[in-house]
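Section: Multi-chain targets

For targets with more than one molecule, the full set of components is provided together so that the structure can be written out for the assembly as a whole rather than chain by chain. Components appear in the order listed by the source. The example entry contains two components.
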Amino acid sequence: MGVAQLCPGVPRALPHCWGVGQAQMGVPRVPAPVTSFLSLAVTSEQIEHLHRRFKQLSQDQLTIRKENFDSIPDLEFNPIRGKIVHAFFDKRNLRQESDGLADEINFEDFLTIMSYFRPIEMNMDEEQLDRFRKEKLKFLFHMYDSDHDGKITLQEYRNVVEELLSGNPHLEKESARSIADGAMMEAASICGPDQVYEGITFEDFLKMWQGIDIETKMHVRFLNVDTIAHCY
Amino acid sequence: MGTGTPPSPSGTAFEETRLHVFTLDYPHVQIPFEITLWILLASLAKIGFHLYHKLPSIVPESCLLILVGLLLGGIIFGAEEKSPPVMNSDVFFLYLLPPIVLDAGYFMPTRLFFENFGTIFWYAVVGTLWNAIGIGISLYGICQISAFGLTDITLLQNLLFGSLISAVDPVAVLAVFENIHVNEQLYILVFGESLLNDAITVVLYNLFKSFCQMRTIKVIDIFAGIANFFIVGIGGVLIGILLGFVAAFTTRFTHKIRVIEPLFVFLYSYLSYITAEMFHLSGIMAITACAMTMNKYVEENVSQKSYTTIKYFMKMLSSVSETLIFIFMGVSTVGKNHEWNWAFVSFTLLFCLIWRALGVFVLTQIINVFRTIPLTFKDQFIIAYGGLRGAICFSLVFLLPPAVFPRKKLFITAVIVVIFFTVFIQGITIRPLVEFLDVKRSNKKQPAVSEEIYNRFFDHVKTGIEDVCGHWGHNFWRDKFKKFDNKYLRRLLIRENQPKSSIVSLYKKLEIKHAIEMAESGMISKVPSSVSLSDYHEGKIKPLSPTEMENMREILTKNLYQIRHRTMSYNRHSLAADAGEKQAKEILIRRRHSLRESLRKTNSLSRERPAAANTKRFLSLPKNTKLPEKLRVRNKTSSRVGDSSDSELDAATTVLNLRPRAGKILRDQRLRQQRPLPEFRVEWKNEVDGSQDGRGEQQDPSTVPQPSIGFRQPLLTRPRFGTLSREDLTADHGSARPVPPPRLVRQASQGDRQRNKPENLPY
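Its structure, encoded as tokens over all components, is:
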């Protein structure tokens, strides 16, 4: 799956010269082939905006590395900054078969990550919605599961909570731990106590998020990009 | 003063009156007496409704109250042959309405409100305008038809009427929506609209009223009207915010006089209301803004008791106000101030419904473009259907100057019919409609720590992504506000400013709540913790998580201790820290003891487990003192039972009781019947023994209080987890080896010895 699949009108050569400049971006909106998650309605407009942003971040290079994310000032204040940046390079999110971290990502990968945050479409049917939701939740799951073993263990969970609360200097570590433990117990209860429980698997994770309609909350509107100037 | 008759008028013969032993002086106390009687009547009516428990779910209280009012009005009318006292508009606007709005504003979910602010504002302003002008013009069209005898009503009068009847009423909305539990999004849309449309209603009402009284209307007047809208709305909000900050600032210094803390909240909010009314600004918006601003900061400055007082007093006031309003509406309906005109009344009703539906539909199409979560047809239907009219239009219509409005009685009748229709018909049918349409309901789950964590995590993720792609979303603004808030506002307005995390505060709240419950009940909670209940299929093990015990221990010591400490402070004792810890342990021991006792009494047992299986549980033992071990022991056994541990477990796992209980309880009972008592004992002793072995060495160094220990055990009950924990445990964890069952007698005595020892601690 490449960007070419996104925009069928675009010549195949385009993925290689993303960094050079987008000559013809007047690509019509792509109807969705069912198999490709990404190709569901990422409009050319959005691609343009994101591409501009990508160029800014990468300083006109073809790829972004972790260091490039340091140039975003507001991200510094985010307690889970590390995880967010990590998520961009996580190969599982990039839909590559392998595991681990990529060193650098190109625009296609950037788009892939951003596509997790697409707003919901009005004309999606049940099955699509479900898949949509699962993809988004999988993204979140990967952020929790840092050692890539497919389960969130207690240690990883604690890690998450500690990071979340790291902005608060008054908090003792034990509080963070007890909170994490309490939450894990909850998880255990939802996910059924009769199995061997090594950690929260993705299915359990799904169950926990059942009440929250993640597909509507987890999106960013890519429309308004005049604010990009702020990054400098 | 009432003990003697007043002296007879001078000039005439001086009549001597004897001393009166008993006199009745009603006029002296008339006003407060009548007020008290009314309020008493309202409250008794409320009690009456709830006697039959099904009633409030079918018929909203507002309907019943109006009926009571009608009855009462009928009685007064029949008795005195004159119209009963009509609700004075001043009384309504100055005394009855503010408490309701205050209550609503104070407990408004601010985050949801601001997320939907654009939509709410759009509906409130444009929607009300649309309704007002639409109804006014169409009614004018009807009035033109001479067959109805309405030709003397001018366009301006119609417009005024339209403006006062298009106002969605917060009181009625609250009264009806509180029972049907639609999802919060929908609720906040309708309710927010009803609050914000006050600004536009005030403006339109005054505008058209003055237009009616002016001879000519110039274009400048129209612009003045538009400018007036901005002043009214923004001015009201500014007054509210300003006074909210002043209130927060005041409460910063009230820690010495806790008793009058709640008073400040009420005084400042009321002040904001009447100040706004003084300037003819929107009082409702002022008090709402004040309450929302005040809420965050005041909550942190006042003591727990003051906060509870504020909450309850507010709810009480608003409840009484609401009841009185509806009763008065009923009473005022009866009487001679009516003029019935079929055409006007029915067309009014029709147009109200039509324009509301049209308005919502058209506006939603427009606003959906800008919304991230578009509103579905179901939502739109509920929003349109939930546009209830109530006491505000009622009072506004009574305020019309009769000199300018010769047909005032007609208006009154029409308004009453519309209100009755919306409150009764729409109020009663909205619940079945909501169920029929399968509108998403609010899930009143208990707040869960893990949910809070997820939400916060998610917020940060979203903010981060927004930052990465350089986009300003809601999260961006919220973040910016939070930073500003933390940097300046909180420092200024909060006394002991500690950066607060919602996760931590929620967690602490839950802990405290459960510790209090435990301390109060002194009994095992009847609710089985779903964690402790595992499915006992034969042969399956239900390991008890050591971390649960750890949790419990920690929470108990931390919070029970704190609670006790709180009460102690009234005794002017200052407990030294170590005394406090001892005390905490003491508490724990007693807890354990009482639980154990009740366990024995209830004789609820269950769980068989092969002895071998038991051993896995001993993997990670709490390192601390005998106390925790006791706790653990207790916990294990009690968890066996399936219910006792819940009280402790509940502390940490309040929210864990997510599973349906019935099945488990049944299972418990089934198992219980199968299991004889001795086995229970055996297990218990085992654990004691095992724990003793494992941790004998460890006890002394580990007698430090819990917080420093933290959780080393894994949370979950799986043996495998246990092994994991063993790995990441530090050396002093001790090696708990499984111990073979027997040696009953010895264990018993050991256990007893152990039990007795802590109890000898000085209390």
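The first helix of chain A runs from residue 3 to 6.
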